[in-house]
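Internal tracking record. Fields below are filled automatically when a chain is submitted to the structure queue. Please do not edit lines marked as system-generated. If the sequence contains nonstandard residues, flag them in the REMARKS field before resubmitting.
Queue: standard
Priority: normal
Entity type: single polypeptide chain
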Amino acid sequence: MAGRGTTRQPNEEPSGGGLPPTAWAVLGLLSFPGERTGHELKKWADALLRFFYWSPALSQICAELRRLEALGHATAPRAPEVEPAEALLDDLEHLAHAARTASEPPGQRVADSPTCG
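SYSTEM-GENERATED OUTPUT FOLLOWS
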């Protein structure tokens, strides 16, 4: 009997080395004009795909986006390179400055400590 015992998971590679169904579903969602995040694709999948196909989880969508990008079928915009430590230091400096100015009595200025530069 044809087809018996050949059940496959939805995101499993089909025979022949093609893309899995989830990748095709994500490509279909990407075919609409504009850029979308993984979260936006998940919302679209929940609204549109559930009538024809099950709605993939966000982790599945993100995995397929990485696969499609690696295969050259999709591109992801690159955020500017920012060192995480530098960004954290900037945030801490802003918070420290806000805390110092909030605790200053009116008409007086709290001097910066030499280590806060």
